[in-house]
């Protein structure tokens, strides 16, 4: 484990009171009066079962601007209308004093790098300033965000500030959801969406300004955008380009954009006290919960922000915190728990921005999204377990997985800084100072260097960029990964042997999906099952949030789920069955409840499906249904996913056919107990083992029929298990 500190001493030390901290620093770690355990049992009905000791390590400098800030604070007592109040709030943002200077600089330079601390107002204000200065008369102001939630929530905020309806003058565009209109002048969008816009408008003619926001995040799409927009600014001298970043690493951006000037917005930050645990924590989930409760019971008012790695973790902690604060009674303030993550339904997102009622405390359970993309006012305490989920790709095995990894030092600093926005803050790191110093990298590796590039390569090829090796990357991807992507696209028939886009590839590029899914859809034309293919693609696109399994009704939920698997049809067809049955009930919510299906996920699948249907028309594929021939549907799936094939071993485990590795059927699969000899899977997930998720039985001869250039007879022959006849009778059944 990376979080093992060889010098770690005893773990139970007092917490919270200054005196107690000093004690642990001087080694006198005893539970004495003033430590929270004692206090908790004496004054409150609530007792900690296990506490965590922290060591105050350092104070992160801040510029104390309290006086200036408070004098500018809007006066809440007068009855002003909301719009006016928002306008006044805008004037208190750190960026406000630099408005005119900034506009002048944008006027003078075509490309500019803008650096400013998170929360200074870059995302919400700069596009409005540009509008006020008249840039929207010449075209749209587009602002990209790495995350969909950020694009939505920022657009909502800006539409409020401008007093217009979301989707009118201020809109957003994220994959499968376009909330913009003819009227839109300020458009927030994910970086991936702007990338797709290049397909229809390679010179971005409808835009007057592009702001690539959160440049420091270095997502794959942002990195590709850098190369594309840099090129556009060369022949469109009227297009303004702003690259904004929350970190001080701006020099790199400036160098890349031909020494573009850097505009710094001085931050306003209060000092933040950094605390580390005295010893490494074995279970950071538990440690986070205990820390939140400790803060709540012992510390002065102020909201808490906890950084977690994903939805599941957030839901777990949400549940446990609710449970553990139930017995609080009236002596302890209310703790309002607000989760925020990418798939959180829109209507629940607004809750995190609501001001905390007097006497209560808010705890925001967030993913990395709250690190720089979203600013929540009132946070005074940050709890940082030190982890985040990142995508990592192994070009050798072709496996891409989401793994929980330690964060970088830069991230840790960003996270800590979130507590010092409106007053002195405190950050509780659930790792030791030793870990911070020795185990964390300085910066995260850009996504382009750790991801499957097939999607991007397909997009670039369809933009006519053929020479990928000489594409102007800020940091080039490993050539191994580039070759692997080209190989994969060639195998999918998206590229020919010269590396040029084929007709199939051109059609595939129209779909905002992973190339394997796009290929499945394009291939479904041949098997006359395009209706089924887009249903399956939409169901797969919403991830694994379709079925739910309440703890007290697991048996019922499992039974309901298995109904869709009747005949061991496999997980893909089961998803199809779920969708089609729901459709037959006229999209009934009641039916979803009865079958332990998340209606919200289903509605999203339906939206996605509608859009894929539109795209089918665009690439001129007839909508056809072939429900009577499920093998045809499975062949279409195989056409996209033949790379993902595996064969049962004598051991009961599976082995992937190419680039062999041992894998297992995920316990949630309908085939988990059936164990067919040959399977095709949607994805691999690594938990305790390497699991295949969404599995369908396969006839091995399909592989040779569908991908003859990828599979030869020897690949599907059976040397290890029962002999199979060669040639025609090859099928296992
Ligand atoms: O982009 P940057 O981090 O510099 O700041 P911003 O996102 O423009 O945020 C400026 C201010 O707007 C923050 O202090 C938030 O209080 C507020 N804001 C909000 O209330 N609701 C949002 N959805 C986004 C921002
Ligand atoms: Mg921002």
TrEMBL record:
This protein's UniProt keywords: ATP-binding, Helicase, Hydrolase, mRNA processing, mRNA splicing, Nucleotide-binding, Spliceosome
Tree of life domain: Eukaryota
Reaction(s) catalysed (UniProt annotation): ATP + H2O = ADP + phosphate + H(+)
Molecular function terms, GO-annotated: ATP binding; hydrolase activity; RNA binding; RNA helicase activity
Cross-referenced Pfam families: HA2_C (PF21010), Helicase_C (PF00271), OB_NTP_bind (PF07717), WHD_HA2 (PF04408)
Class of enzymatic activity (EC top level): hydrolase
Keyword Hydrolase among UniProt keywords: yes
BP-aspect Gene Ontology terms: mRNA processing; RNA splicing
Segment forming the signal sequence: none
EC number: 3.6.4.13
An annotated GO cellular component: catalytic step 2 spliceosome
CDD domains: SF2_C_RHA
Ranges where the Helicase C-terminal domain occurs: 291-464
Domain Helicase ATP-binding: 103-266
Annotated family: Belongs to the DEAD box helicase family. DEAH subfamily. PRP2 sub-subfamily.
Protein name: RNA helicase
């Amino acid at each position: 484990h990376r979080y093992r500190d060889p010098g770690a001493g005893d773990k139970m030390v007092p917490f919270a009171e200054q005196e107690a901290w000093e004690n642990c620093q001087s080694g006198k770690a005893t539970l004495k009066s003033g430590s929270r355990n004692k206090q908790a049992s004496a004054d409150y009905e609530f007792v900690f079962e296990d506490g965590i000791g922290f060591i105050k390590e350092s104070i992160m400098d801040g510029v104390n601007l309290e006086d200036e800030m408070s004098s500018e604070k809007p006066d809440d007592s007068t009855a002003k209308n909301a719009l006016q109040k928002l306008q006044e709030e805008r004037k208190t943002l750190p960026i406000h004093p630099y408005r005119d200077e900034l506009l002048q600089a944008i006027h003078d330079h075509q490309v500019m790098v803008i650096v400013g601390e998170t929360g200074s107002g870059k995302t919400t204000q700069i596009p409005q300033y540009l509008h006020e200065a008249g840039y929207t008369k010449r075209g749209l102001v587009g602002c990209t965000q790495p995350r969909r939630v950020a694009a939505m929530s920022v657009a909502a905020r800006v539409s409020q500030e401008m007093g217009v309806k979301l989707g009118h003058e201020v809109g957003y565009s994220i994959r499968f959801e376009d909330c913009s209109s003819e009227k839109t002048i300020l458009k927030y969008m994910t970086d991936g969406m702007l990338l797709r816009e290049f397909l229809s408008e390679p010179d971005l003619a409808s835009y007057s300004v592009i702001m690539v926001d959160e440049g420091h995040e270095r997502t794959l799409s942002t990195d590709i955008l850098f190369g594309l927009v840099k090129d556009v600014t060369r022949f469109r001298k009227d297009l303004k380009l702003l690259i904004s970043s929350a970190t001080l690493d701006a020099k790199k951006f400036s160098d890349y954009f031909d020494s573009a000037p850097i505009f710094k917005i001085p931050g306003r930050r209060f000092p933040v006290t950094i605390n580390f645990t005295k010893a490494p924590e074995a279970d950071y989930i538990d440690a986070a919960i205990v820390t939140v409760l400790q803060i709540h019971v012992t510390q002065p008012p102020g909201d808490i922000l906890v950084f977690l790695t994903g939805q599941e973790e957030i839901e777990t902690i949400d549940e446990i915190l609710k449970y553990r604060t139930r017995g609080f009674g009236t002596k302890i303030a209310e703790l309002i728990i607000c989760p925020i993550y990418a798939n959180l339904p829109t209507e629940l997102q607004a809750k995190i921005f609501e001001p905390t009622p007097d006497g209560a405390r808010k705890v925001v359970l967030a993913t990395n999204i709250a690190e720089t993309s979203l600013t929540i006012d009132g946070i005074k305490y940050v709890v940082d377990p030190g982890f985040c989920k990142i995508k990592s790709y192994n070009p050798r095995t072709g496996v891409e997985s989401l793994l929980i990894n330690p964060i970088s030092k830069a991230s840790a600093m960003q996270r800590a800084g979130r507590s010092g926005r409106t007053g002195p803050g405190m950050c509780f790191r659930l790792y030791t100072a030793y870990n911070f110093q020795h185990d964390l990298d300085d910066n995260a590796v850009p996504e382009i260097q750790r991801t499957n590039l097939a999607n991007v390569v397909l997009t670039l090829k369809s933009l006519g960029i053929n020479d990928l090796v000489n594409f102007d990357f800020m940091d080039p991807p490993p050539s191994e990964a580039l070759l692997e992507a080209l190989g994969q696209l060639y195998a999918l028939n998206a590229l020919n042997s010269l590396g040029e886009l084929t007709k199939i590839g051109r059609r595939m590029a129209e779909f905002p999906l992973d190339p394997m899914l796009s290929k499945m859809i394009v291939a479904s034309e041949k098997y006359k099952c395009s209706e089924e293919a887009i249903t399956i693609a939409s169901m797969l696109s919403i991830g694994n949030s379709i079925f739910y399994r309440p703890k007290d009704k697991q048996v019922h939920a499992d039974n309901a789920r298995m109904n869709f698997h009747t005949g061991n049809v496999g997980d893909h067809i089961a998803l199809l069955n779920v969708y089609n049955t729901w459709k037959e009930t006229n999209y009934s919510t009641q039916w979803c409840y009865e079958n332990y299906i998340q209606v919200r996920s289903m509605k999203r699948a339906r939206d996605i499906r509608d859009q894929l249907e539109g795209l089918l028309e665009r690439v001129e594929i007839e909508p056809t249904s072939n429900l009577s021939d499920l093998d045809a549907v499975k062949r279409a799936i195989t056409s996209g996913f033949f790379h993902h094939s595996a064969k049962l071993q004598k051991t009961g485990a599976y082995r992937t056919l190419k680039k062999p590795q041992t894998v297992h059927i995920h316990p949630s699969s309908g085939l988990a107990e059936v164990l067919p000899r040959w399977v095709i899977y949607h994805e691999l997930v690594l938990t305790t083992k390497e699991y295949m998720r969404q599995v369908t039985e396969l006839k091995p001869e399909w592989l040779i029929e569908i991908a003859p250039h990828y599979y030869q007879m020897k690949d599907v022959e059976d040397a290890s298990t029962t002999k199979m006849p060669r040639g025609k009778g090859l099928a296992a059944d």
